[in-house]
Amino acid sequence: MGAYYDEIEIEDMTWDAAKGVYHYPCPCGDRFEITKRQLADYEDIATCPSCSLIIRVVYDPLDFEDYKSDTESSDKEDE
């Protein structure tokens, strides 16, 4: 997939603790969203829920390694 609306640095996005997502304004008036879980899983595409535009999030996956291991260990405790 190479038709991104834009490439945005993670530092330029805003963390929304209530929804648990990073977000960035979309030209349609809504906002692009991506979760920490997606970032931990090396997914770098943020989508807008109101239109078909997507952005590529530029970030260091190592910054989210701890998040992934925290959720995996809590998943194992549930078993």
UniProtKB/TrEMBL annotation:
Recorded metabolic or biological pathway in which this protein acts: Protein modification; peptidyl-diphthamide biosynthesis
InterPro entries named in the record: DPH3/4-like (IPR044248), DPH_MB_dom (IPR007872), DPH_MB_sf (IPR036671)
Catalyzed reaction equations: 2 [3Fe-4S](0)-[protein] + 2 Fe(2+)-[Dph3] + NADH = 2 [4Fe-4S](1+)-[protein] + 2 [Dph3] + NAD(+) + H(+); [3Fe-4S](1+)-[protein] + Fe(2+)-[Dph3] = [3Fe-4S](0)-[protein] + Fe(3+)-[Dph3]
Gene Ontology BP, a term: protein histidyl modification to diphthamide
Keyword Metal-binding found: yes
Chain ranges of the DPH-type MB domain: 4-60
PANTHER family reported in the protein's UniProt record: DIPHTHAMIDE BIOSYNTHESIS PROTEIN 3, DPH3 HOMOLOG-RELATED
Family membership: Belongs to the DPH3 family.
Protein name (record): Diphthamide biosynthesis protein 3
